[in-house]
Specification:
Length: about 300
Amino acid sequence: MSAKLLDGLSVAKEIKSEVAAEVKALFETHQIKPGLAAVIVGSDPASQVYVGSKVKTCETLGLYSEQHTLAETTTTEELLALITKLNAKDTIDGILVQMPLPKQIDANRVFAAISPSKDVDGFHTENVGRLALKQTGFVPCTPAGIMELLKRYDLSVAGKRAVVLGRSRIVGLPMALLLTHADATVTICHSKTPKLREITKEADIIIAAIGRTAFVTTEDIKLGAIVIDVGINKLSEETEVLRYFPDYTNRLAELEKKGYTLIGDVEPVCDTVAGYLTPVPGGVGPLTIAMLMKNTVKAARLRRAI
Ligand code: NDP
């Protein structure tokens, strides 16, 4: 059996074109341009790429955006002062603070400082509570994107047994809540879960979000399962590329060019057992940015009761 690949890139493209149409209509009808402020602390190259691509997507879809880059040595108080200003700024509907933050910064205080009405990442306690209670609020972009992907591929969740690997605030926990609200029977596994691989074998749907290279193997999944690979891990050794990728030619070329190639939390060869699988890259990743744009437009509407 060969799994059907769930194409996150095309679904993200579809969502983004819907967002662009909504942004245009909002401007024509209400003269509103939804605005996103992206805050980055320090010079982590991966974070710079992520933020750059979020800002660029805003521009492409017609949203207003601004980027605030703070020094690596920024204190929690300094970051909070910027957030207070952005909370008060009328042209800004959504605020995102790129993770990870430098060690000296108290991330929980930062999440708590963002106005819940501008919390387009959905990390504020109020939005986490709203999600838990199935009330309107902001849902973290990656799990929200996964639900859109499943919906747009007509993959029903109701009545299925779902296993979520990982319990983070960003992915695992909200993912488990969304699947529960969609009537799946959900098990969350984490680093302290005994016999985890016996649990995944029973699952109709597996969401792997642990950040461990090729952790889920063909032995761990049921024939025909839906497997969503959230993990983003780097391979920088040729021997690893040869080991994990059956069709390694493109990957070796990429390794030579960039010094690494990406792999998820699921062994690529799982496509021989799974019914559906998201590729890495090109699966979950693109959906995260698309949902951030969607959340920003939603914030613009909710703030003005449109
Ligand atoms: P975190 O590090 O915050 O959380 C990882 C979770 O995985 C924790 O709950 C941890 O358990 C669990 N875990 C770690 N090792 C194991 C193990 N060996 N067995 C079982 N559980 C384990 O990561 P995130 O949730 O932020 O991200 C997870 C992955 O998803 C990363 O690779 C990240 O890069 C990727 N990601 C991708 C996105 C995308 O757009 N595609 C967006 C966000 C993240 P415990 O709680 O017990 O420590």
